[in-house]
Amino acid sequence: MSGFGLAALALLNPQPGERILDLGCGEGALTAKLVEAGCTVVGVDGAAAMVEAARHRGLDVRLMDGQRLQFSAEFDAVFSNAALHWMPDPDAVIAGVRRALKPSGRFVAEFGGHGNVATIVEALRAVLARRGVEGGGSMPWYFPKPETYAAKLRAGGFAVENIALFPRPTPLPTDMAGWLDTFGESFFSQLPPRDRDDALAEVIERLRPSLYDHAGHWTADYVRLRFAAHLPRA
Ligand code: BEZ
How many helices (H) and strands (E) does the chain have? Predict the structure, then answer.
């Protein structure tokens, strides 16, 4: 696995015997690390394919929307990596995490923050605008500022120990076409199918000067928001 997410795991500081919820566990790479650390771990993900992949690793993973968590006062900590930006209702997420935690329980997460993939979104919007799509297509992600998310955590009953926004340029395992193919659907779907190939090529050319290097690699302009928070004692 890549090292991304390990710093958030270190911030969680999992202890053997703790019961931990991995919120948006994906294929379960970090869930497995928590199990290796001696924790009892439940993973949840909203995508059936991810749940299936994680179960293949032998993990206890359930298909569940992170905005409708179904747990009550049973976890010492809730952990989440690279998932909260897919959940457009942060207040529902925070309320569900609060319900899932025992008193003093910790909530530690890392996800896309304000400015995440801004260069890519700007190129997508410019290309759509040139084709008459005003408003730039619908933004499928939630990338908050630290002060906005901290206020939500506090309103949800958490004490915020630390929260930080930082750039984390991320080399792409494929190329920009692959990234846009996987994640750009909500933008390209605004166009008639016959225009999409041209639009994709134009987005890539707009991004080349800033995100493609001389060694032939693409890097996405990821920005991370990482925080640790906890509930008060009972
Ligand atoms: C991310 O920041 O991890 C991300 C953002 C948008 C699409 C895919 C991944």
Answer: 9, 9
